[in-house]
Amino acid sequence: MHTPTYLAAELRLPTNWLDYTILGIYFLVVLGIGFAARRSVKTSLDFFLSGRSLPAWVTGLAFIAANLGATEILGMAANSAQYGVYTTHWYWIGAIPAMVFLGLVMMPFYYGSKVRSVPEFLLLRFDKAAHLLSSILFAAAAILIAGVNLYALAIVVEALLGWPQWVAIVVAGAFVLGYITLGGLSSAIYNEVLQFFVILAALIPITVLGLKSVGGWDGLSDQLTSARGDNFMTAWGGTGIGSDNPLGANWLTIVLGLGFVLSFGYWTTNFAEVQRALSAKNLSAAQRTPLIAAFPKIFIVFLVMIPGLVAAVLVPRIGTAGSDLQYNDAIPYLMQQLLPNGVLGIAVTGLLAAFMAGMAANVSSFNTVFTADIWQKYVVKDREDSYYVRFGRLITAIGVLASIGTAFLASSFSNIMAYLQTLFSFFNVPMFVVFIIGMFWKRASMKSGFWGLLAGTTAAMVNYFYIYEQGVIDIPSDQGANFVSAIAGFVAGAVVMVAVSLFTAPKPQAELQGLVYGTRSPGMAEPPAEGDDAWYRKPALLGWGAVILAAACYIPFSF
Amino acid sequence: MSDHYSEDDLQKEITELETKSATAARLFDIRRIIGGLFVVYGVIVMIAGFTASDADIEKAAGVNINLWTGLGMLILGLLFLLWLWLRPTPPPPAVPEDKDASTP
């Protein structure tokens, strides 16, 4: 399982001056956005949260783009080439319910309490120990994940364009560093919105041409069913408990591990995502941020899954010893085979933009947590506001340098997506359990937050490094192991929180206003802004609409 | 900041920062950038489509993909510019004259 991710050398793209012109224009625009956003940065709130003033469509598209990094695109195409239509689970059950829950249920507490970050919410709800531990865990995870993006970028760019790895790392790192230190979160978010559209412009031609080259959807479906078995083209086939399927997971681990624990942990408590919603201009816009993002998320699966499936048809032995191509090569391979110069330049630009956005989302959330949660609260307190803006710019530079260092850790995993999900099971899942219990159970005591977080993180790591890697229990794949780690982390965190709560003092009622379900904070009382009462801006309608649409999408792949 | 950090402290701090914030007043409208970039890309890629060789079209499963992608990008860019024209950026709320741009 653990072989390096080097892309095959013959994937070199036939790029010419036209493609490089398109790429060059993009890099100029990226930096231009940074310079233009610079004049809007006056306070630390501007730098870290865009002054809580962006419209919902901008934060919503940034929310989805922060998730649509190149690791997601290449990784989910790899997943599809390896596991087939099971990939849809990461979207329809593994994203939509959690995104809707974030928007409808959790956002009033996040946005209304005016916290600047997810750990800061834990400071209000629990105590300093929980706050500091979650801040440090998040900062570490953000740097690790930014490193994954950077490493993956270097490998892909070396294979596709022939740039040495260090050139790709320095160029991408310098541009991300440049636009975030200049314009802060506004600049990161604006670039994410732009990247969202460039990525679509890159993926749609690949998907359309890929389908055409294998005889349309029917041709794709027939060839894969005969080559990989009946279950490959279904979402739920072969997922009965005890039956064998390529994913190594059954319906229960899919629903609980992926659909509930991993997905809620990622979407509702991962600050790299939640930060986009916290920068919205009012509560209604903050609630709509993940809901607006949910609709593209439902359909993006086709743009990554179909290229992966097409690659599995065109290169039947992809990912096995019989082929030089790894699963991660699916999309680069189609780019090389199908795209002429011009669209090829758009696709290369989209891929590089996606790498940079995936990294920038993590860097811009890291600098906020490190400055507002660690530095300002425990190290250098009570300085003037402009000091923290300067410190935020400095720590951005340090964060970019540190992520170059962590890039090499990613090299030991063959499936980038599996590595990311492993990190999420370590870091996001325990955070989620602490959140969900703290938000819905008033009795959860001040001390229970810290111990729940510690126990959950430890349990997920013990499951992965000891029970799975040492083979104590036989779990067939990395992904299957991640689902189990997630469930183990969730259960351990929950049990420890309840136990500690029963023996320690609860937080006084008066201090829980607006932090626990059933209470309200002053920030929630604001009247809706003009125009926000239009029917298409009603959060409940958007949210339930997304859930129903996602459920309906399962129908053609279930029978 | 006292040892005990409460929600009231935070509400006060953020509300004060919100009144000084400059993003709403000074941040440009991203629709202009998206519109502009996609119009430029659309034109470039369409030109590549008009001058496509037979080899280019054969490579792309018989489709003149540059032409279609370029057209799609051009339309998207124009739609963003149209949206900006129909619903211009709302005028910034009145803010007090900025005396301390970023000096401490």
UniProtKB/TrEMBL annotation, chain A:
UniProt keywords, alphabetically: Membrane, Transmembrane, Transmembrane helix
UniProt-annotated location(s): Membrane
Coiled coil region boundaries: none
Name of the molecule in the record: Sodium:solute symporter family protein
Pfam short name (any one): SSF
CDD domains according to UniProt: SLC5sbd_u2 (cd11478)
Entry's family note: Belongs to the sodium:solute symporter (SSF) (TC 2.A.21) family.
UniProt-listed Gene3D superfamilies: Sodium/glucose cotransporter
Membrane topology field: Multi-pass membrane protein
Residues that span the membrane, as ranges: 20-37, 57-78, 90-111, 132-157, 163-182, 194-211, 249-269, 290-315, 343-370, 391-410, 416-441, 448-468, 480-503, 540-557
UniProtKB/TrEMBL annotation, chain B:
TM region(s), chain numbering: 33-53, 65-86
Organism this protein belongs to: Streptomyces erythrogriseus
Keyword terms: Membrane, Transmembrane, Transmembrane helix
Domain of life: Bacteria
UniProt-recorded name of the protein: Integral membrane protein
Presence of keyword Transmembrane helix: yes
Keyword Transmembrane appears in the UniProt entry: yes
